[in-house]
Amino acid sequence: MYPKVYLTVDNCFASKRWTDPGEWMQVVRDIGIRYVEASADNECDPGYTTEAYRKDWVKEVQRASERTGVRVCTLYSGHGSYSTLGLTHTDERVRNYMVDTWIRSMCETAGALGAGLGFFCHAFSSAVLQDPALYREYLELLYVQLVRVACYAEEYGCKCVGVENMYSPHQVPWTLDGTDELLHRVNAESAFPFYISVDVGHQVGQQRFLMPTQEALEQAVRARRNGAPTPWLGIRQAYELFDTAAVDQEHEQERLDAVFTLLKAYPYLFSNDKDTSTRNWIERFGRYSPIIHLQQTDGLNSSHLPFTPEMNETGIVQGDQILRWLHTSFSLSNESGMPPEAQEIFLTLEVFSKTTDTEADIINRMEQSVAYWRRFIPQDGMGLEELLHN
């Protein structure tokens, strides 16, 4: 069964400018959007607001929604929690705080609005990444934490809940296979469905963390002698061996063989070519991603650019392709151990604003981005198959 599709906008573009719900809802309405993803950064983060304030904030959102006809469909974490170790902090007290206070508060707010919740608020420290046993311990800990998140989402009546895919080894999930494992593991332990939020620009990092071949290592060590930077090796010991190979040509091959053997013992630090493709991510996980973040990108950086004609000239994200890849995902047979396929997909413009941007510039870019995507989603709530034949 194919889902209904909605064009949504994350109100992070309005942070520090249009901060009252009535303000950003009116701006959103004026640019032609009726569904909003409310970013914690826009004055509702439990980390820097009080419980009483957040309850009043919910009431303001509800009043503004009645007045403008704009609905908050999802709540999402922001930069504040993204910048911490959070759910996988090395201190148990902080980990528990993130789940039992921060996430719980977010679930309560989302539930009060009849909205879904998406988030990313964890990372693995370098010390964890350097120790395979410790890494596995923290990976298992993350799964436990995410099951607890799902429990809170169910308790407070969140419409859906899911974690976002990222693009570097210290931010799990960041590979296709790792995401598959995470979804299977969490959903095996949780009675409430747990999803992924795919960002169409988060495939730019994986190309920087590919496992080098032996031939590539040989070429890299020769280039290193001429001042080229060392490629990604991940493990400190591998870097030390590589540097000595660059200096000691007599034992170069022996040390490079040792480097290559060492890398194979740390597979979680490396990506695969398939992980660098947005198409692969959408086709594999689109049906398990009720929230999909849209940004324009040149394929080199995840800068959350708008879909203006200028940016689209060099951008690689195209609306018709995203819909076709989604259709392919929903055409696949049911997969055991995964959450139910999403019945609604919120394609969400997540466009960042710069500190020096003027309000007029921000609105102009958002208007152009909405106009671009309305070519593919002319009306919210249309079926995916209908959109492809529109």
Describe this entry's structure for a reader.
It is a single chain. With 390 residues, the chain is α/β, with parallel strands linked by helices. It is 46% helix and 11% strand. It contains 15 helices and 9 strands. It has helices at residues 21-30, 51-68, 79-82, 92-112, 126-129, 132-155, 176-189, 214-225, 236-247, 252-263, 278-285, 309-314, 319-331, 359-374, 384-388, and strands at 4-10, 35-39, 71-76, 116-119, 161-164, 195-199, 291-294, 344-349, 382-383. Helix 1 packs parallel to helix 2, helix 6 crosses helix 7 (176-189) and helix 9 (236-247) runs antiparallel to helix 10. The mean pLDDT is 97.
Question: Could you state the order of secondary-structure elements as H and E?
Answer: EHEHEHHEHHEHEHHHHEHHEHEH
Radius of gyration: 22 Å
The CATH homologous superfamily of the largest domain is called Divalent-metal-dependent TIM barrel enzymes
Please give the CATH architecture of the largest domain.
Alpha-Beta Barrel
Give the strand line-up of the largest sheet.
1-2-3-4-5-6-7-8
Supply database-style keywords.
2 domains, 390 residues, TIM Barrel, 15 helices, eight-stranded parallel barrel
